[in-house]
Structure to design on (259 residues):
């Protein structure tokens, strides 16, 4: 009889715990600019939790970083270079304003082939291209025909149309809420990290983007183990997209894969 009572209690409690877990505020952290420095990338990959690696395509260690990230059970995305208003140096594989639709598609295909296991993309620089409806439409049309890739609007300009066009074309998407390390000091980074947590607790989710600076890695290494105490859950960015778009079946699938 005692065993039966225990079993019935277990059946009652398990669904509640699962539902409670899915209701927790979630955060996702993307680290940009990976691929040039293998040691820095490895430090990012070794961080606790589902930190996402955003890899520049034409860098020395791009493919290796993508493999290492994937086989660590974490998500990797293409960090696509795009022309900025200031004309910053972009490196190879960039999308610029004088490109045709065919050139944009060819560039995206080439870059994605250099990042094995990429599940989506965001943009590097891009303050000019991301506010240009023509080029952003071409990018989203390419992602739409791939169907398996999502887009993260890095919001490097307030004038961005990236997320709007992704939604119009039917590409799964979300946006950055916080830049962690615009000011590269541990105090400032910690402040932005806790701002991300406050936003998640208010809105249910938040996405932050940072870079592989020693200061950023140090703060994340110290703070991520305490996220449960702060009342948030670190998840892959694909899970944030699924939650924000009400894709319940995809949330279960992603949560099952997360490590």
């Amino acid at each position: 009889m005692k065993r039966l009572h225990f079993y019935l209690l277990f059946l009652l409690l398990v669904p509640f715990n699962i539902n409670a877990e899915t209701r927790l505020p979630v955060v996702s952290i993307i680290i940009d600019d990976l691929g040039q420095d293998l040691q820095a990338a490895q430090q990012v990959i070794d961080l606790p939790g589902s930190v996402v690696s955003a890899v520049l395509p034409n860098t020395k260690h791009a493919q290796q970083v993508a493999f290492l990230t994937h086989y660590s059970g974490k998500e990797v995305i293409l960090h696509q270079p795009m022309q900025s208003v200031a004309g910053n140096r972009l490196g190879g594989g960039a999308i610029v304003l004088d490109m045709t639709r065919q050139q944009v598609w060819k560039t995206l295909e080439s870059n994605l082939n250099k990042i094995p296991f990429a599940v989506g993309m965001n943009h590097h620089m891009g303050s000019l291209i991301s506010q240009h409806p023509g080029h952003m439409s071409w990018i989203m049309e390419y992602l739409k025909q791939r169907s398996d890739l999502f887009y993260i609007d890095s919001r490097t300009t307030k004038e961005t149309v990236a997320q709007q066009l992704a939604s119009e074309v039917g590409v799964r998407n979300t946006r950055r809420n916080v830049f962690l390390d615009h000011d590269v000091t541990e105090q400032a980074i910690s402040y932005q990290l806790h701002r991300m947590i406050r936003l998640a607790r208010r809105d249910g989710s938040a996405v932050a983007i940072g870079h592989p600076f020693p200061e950023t890695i140090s703060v994340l290494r110290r703070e991520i183990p305490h996220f449960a105490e702060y009342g948030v859950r670190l998840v892959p960015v694909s899970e944030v997209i699924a939650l924000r778009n009400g894709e319940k079946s995809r949330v279960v699938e992603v949560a099952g894969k997360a490590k």
User: Anything to note?
Assistant: The beta strands are 26-34, 52-55, 76-82, 118-125, 150-153, 173-175, 178-179, 205-210, 233-234. The domain at 26-257 is CATH 3.20.20.370 (TIM Barrel). The CA atoms of residues 190 and 223 lie 8 Å apart.
